[in-house]
Amino acid sequence: MDLGFLAPLIGRPGPWATVCLDTSRTTEDAQQRQVLLQRTAVRELADRGADPHSCRAVAEHLAGEPASGSPPGRALFAAGGEVVLDVPLTGAPPVVETAWGPLPHLAPLLGRLEAADADCLVAAIDRTGADLEMRRLGRAEPLGTVDGATWQGRGHRAPPTDRYEWHYRHREQDAWDRSADTIAGHLVEARSDCNAHLVVLTGDARERRAVHERLPKHLQPLTVEVDGGGRAGGIHTETFERRLDEAWQEFCRHHADEILERFRNGTGRPGERRTDGTGTEIAAGAAAEGVPAVTAAARQHQLATLLLGQDGPDTGREVWIGPEPEHIGTDRGAVRSMGVPRPERAQAGDALLRCAIASHAEAITVPDGAGGPVGGVGAVLRWRS
């Protein structure tokens, strides 16, 4: 999961209020239910010690939730009397979840935030061109139409059968080749602009295959073809939506498997351990496992991918932090030596996610039984120590 959309959470001091709740409006008593959930969220924050200004900001923000078109859930992060970030979620928690602490309480929400990070660049293709749109949280944002090259052959609806037939077919194919090149070029630009994780091609099978083959090599692993959508009948069909969701889930599973394989190959031989000059355990290879090793790697901006176990006990282990993401350590004295006069305690999962956001790393949730890091905290590194 790309953590870039969480960047607003690292540029200001805490303490932070975190709220995750159901905001769906699918039942007859939805409005009354929403009022009760909002009151519960604000009351729980106050009970946890949140300041009145932040409580009021959360209450006012939730009160402004529209009566229709709301996502199934929301995660709110507030500090200094202001809601800093509001993340719509594709799934809602069964109960209101709140936290108040020195950092946004991100670790338990990582799985839901991964779903919120799902985005796809969709192209519905036929011989005349393509319609492009960006998908985020199931919502479509039109990105425009690509008009391909066409050749009408002087009004003929079918190829002529005389001696000019070869020339007709050749020019028709040449027109489509140029169209496929044009569509592929627009997809490369659009993907660069919106930074979509997955490129989805739908529409006519032969035409989308031609576009797929013309995409640059670095986009090939990020591109899939999905049946059920098209230009004439529209992209938004029940069949296409189901297959798009299946394609996204498969893409995520494949990516997670690759990360876990790199982690397992990079943790070094069983029992192999190294320490830095302070005696802190550090990574032995291209990956790190355990809070001390991952914390040391995070301090050196080594994180490429942070791995957090779904129910890993080490994500809740306390570490010491300062105002900057790299102010992190398992020892209070070590953080004080970084120029932090009054280090604070924070949960390891939240502190490491702050480091990952700051260093433009990604993060994934590792399900139980998937062979992830022991204790639930690990990382694939950018380079070896």
Provide a quick synopsis of the model.
With 385 residues, this protein is of the alpha+beta class.
Secondary-structure blueprint:
Layout lengths: L15 E7 L7 H18 L4 H12 L9 E7 L2 E8 L7 E5 L8 H7 L2 E8 L2 E8 L2 E9 L17 H30 L3 E6 L1 H10 L8 E3 L12 H29 L7 E2 L5 E2 L4 E3 L1 H9 L3 E7 L8 E4 L6 E2 L2 H5 L7 E4 H11 L3 E5 L10 E5 L4
Parallel strand pairs: 5-8, 8-9, 13-17
Antiparallel strand pairs: 1-2, 1-4, 2-3, 5-6, 6-7, 10-11, 12-18, 13-18, 14-15, 14-16
Helix pairs in contact: 1-2, 4-5, 7-9
Description:
With 385 residues, this protein is of the alpha+beta class. The protein folds into 3 domains: 4-116, Translation, Eukaryotic Peptide Chain Release Factor Subunit 1, Chain A, CATH 3.30.960; 119-254, Nucleotidyltransferase, domain 5 (2-Layer Sandwich); 267-381, 60s Ribosomal Protein L30, Chain: A (2-Layer Sandwich), CATH 3.30.1330. Helices cover 34% and strands 25% of the residues. It contains 9 helices and 18 strands. A 5-stranded mixed beta sheet has the order 7-6-5-8-9, with helices on both faces. A 4-stranded antiparallel beta sheet has the order 3-2-1-4, sandwiched between helices. Strands 12-18-13-17 form a 4-stranded mixed beta sheet, with helices on both faces. α7 runs parallel beside α9 (348-358).
